[in-house]
Amino acid sequence: MAEPLGIIAGGGPLPRRVADAARAAGRPVAVVVLEGHGDPGAWAGYPHVVLRFGLAARMLSWLKGQGVRQLVLSGSVTRPSFLSLRPDAESVRLAVRIGRRAFGGDDELLSTVLAVLREEGFEPIGAQEVLAGLLAPPGLLTRAAPDAEAMADIARGVRVVRALGAVDVGQGAVVQQGLVLAVEAIEGTDAMLARAAGLRREGPGGVFVKLVKPGQDRRVDLPTLGPPTVAGAAAAGLRGIAFEAEGCILAERDAMIAAADAAGLFLLGLTPRQIGEMA
User: Fold this and answer.
1) CATH code of the domain containing 74
2) What is the per-residue pLDDT across 229-251, written as a single tens digit (0 to 9) for each?
3) What is the pTM of this model?
């Protein structure tokens, strides 16, 4: 029998897609649904348990009991405050091993969490290792294409996002006519785009740039885009979205492209070489 795959599931459709792909490949799946983030109702038919962040030790114990070694962290999660965790005694011992990194940036925290998982006998893997075709391809995906002004805004956005990533803050920015309207921090992409809508200037619309942080571990927290991202960009009056090819996840690629074409937006996958030239 194939080795079980464990999934720690946040919100959105991606964790279920990963589970379905694993099952189709003949692997059993065991799921920890993060309380307040994932939807327990989406997991009918899969062995699963619903637990809050503060019960991390219980999560790992349950996964071990299911025979899990390989583990995927997938889905959207809002980082909780430390005081809201209310950990049990065993989870406190895990938290001590994470230490001060719990108060750092997301990448620093997640890198430490991955190290703890490995120490506990798990092998963290990326969702893209289970679900083929998940990562964004390079090049233009839509009928609309960026003009010279939009490309200049993309280059400006690349420099800003690379600077944000270097200090482990965010993965995205909105630029219009060379002006940085918004940068992504803890609020996430959707809230940032909504904020940018109120800061729009007259004239040609801006662009949204989304990149992987420099040095980021690509098994967790890869930038994820989908139809809601396109809807948010359109509502903000943007002309398009540029993202890191083979680094960003397009959660529902066909639906995202169709939505962008309907809205007249471009979707552009930037290669590492293009990003390096812009930076």
Assistant:
1) 3.40.50.20
2) 999 999 999 999 999 999 999 98
3) 0.82
CB–CB of 107/167 below 8 Å?
A: no
Does 115 share its domain with 143?
no
User: Contact 16/5 with Cβ under 8 angstroms?
Assistant: no
Confirm whether 24 is domain-assigned: yes
The string over 66-84, giving b where at least 16 C-beta atoms fall within 10 Å of a residue's C-beta and e elsewhere, is bebebbbbbbbbeeeeeee
Number of domains in the chain: 2
* Alpha helix stretches (DSSP H) within the chain: 14-24, 56-65, 89-98, 106-119, 148-166, 189-197, 227-235, 253-263, 272-278
The C-alpha atoms of residue 272 and residue 278 are separated, in whole angstroms, by 10
State the Cα–Cα distance between residues 200 and 230, nearest whole angstrom: 16
Residues 160 and 80 in one domain: no
Mean pLDDT of the chain: 88
180 and 107 within one domain: no
Query: Are 252 and 226 within 8 A, CB to CB?
Result: yes
